[in-house]
Amino acid sequence: xxxxxxxxxxxxxxxxxxxxxxxxxxxxxxxxxxxxxxxxxxxxxxxxxxxxxxxxxxxxxxxxxxxxxxxxxxxxxxxxxxxxxxxxxxxxxxxxxxxxxxxxxxxxxxxxxxxxxxxxxxxxxxxxxxxxxxxxxxxxxxxxxxxxxxxxxxxxxxxxxxxxxxxxxxxxxxxxxxxxxxxxxxxxxxxxxxxxxxxxxxxxxxxxxxxxxxxxxxxxxxxxxxxxxxxxxxxxxxxxxxxxxxxxxxxxxxxxxxxxxxxxxxxxxxxxxxxxxxxxxxxxxxxxxxxxxxxxxxxxxxxxxxxxxxxxxxxxxxxxxxxxxxxxxxxxxxxxxxxxxxxxxxxxxxxxxxxxxxxxxxxxxxxxxxxxxxxxxxxxxxxxxxxxxxxxxxxxxxxxxxxxxxxxxxxxxxxx
Length: 416
Known about the structure:
The chain has 18 helices and no strands. By secondary structure, it is mainly α.
């Protein structure tokens, strides 16, 4: 099994989980029990707990290193402002697409999993207004926010800390930057180790889902996959090329062709960080963007610009709420938008990082029951192709941003 790529391991674990789940369902008529069943399903519980364990330190160190890496002075000036504005805008577009499609298609509606009765709706956080959400973002005590898993507060403080590091003397900031960079590298390594355990987690979670609920969830997951894929396609084939054409006046076909090798690398590796060297080469050599722009915009994009991940998080949380039979209010969905936008900034550029991020958004609206973990585990089983598409969208958005910013700085793209 270890010689196989992770997505094949997950697929095999999913098939095994379905088979084992069917056996337990037939034996116990939908109410499975026993030591063997408990041991198998405990694998899913352990995997989910490990994922939740890495959330706070991973997000905190990722955002601090990303924001502080922008630099001060000129770097936070004209080009920095354009870069941040572009990344926030495209991520917001992606989020709106994800929410719109999921509200229209309703992939989780009508799925009877036997979870609706057990889910405690009172745990949902329902802020009264957008102002309440903004107020709740500011933690009274950052350490308490970290201990209690208040992700909005953690993200807000991490951004502020990152900005603060850019505004102090380098002899003081370098010490902390090196510390957070090292901590971030450690957390990425730990996260990758946890994700390698995904096949065992999927085995436990799928076994529980099938043993207790049958195959109802898989029909919904099929519609969910189509919803996510449709949203990513709209962003990749319509929104981003339209922005490219509007701001540069150049045919998007040229840019698709120029970025072909980077897109192929992103699709195969599912890692923005691993694809970064290829992306930089394509943007510089093929599109004609200067190194001054690429060396600033693209590494920053690999850290904070995750359009595909932001879309996936929003649509995924809305899908979970539909499966649970709960209609999220406008305030809840606004919370999702803000959290997904901020969480996408902290998404590590590694495979399946979006899986870790989705727990942040679910917790922001109060989805913390064990039933939610079962649904997310089933989503993970079909996540690999979606992760490949998400990474490709993320990389293409980075390259479009670099080209638009370079054009706005007077650079000549494609020798035009």
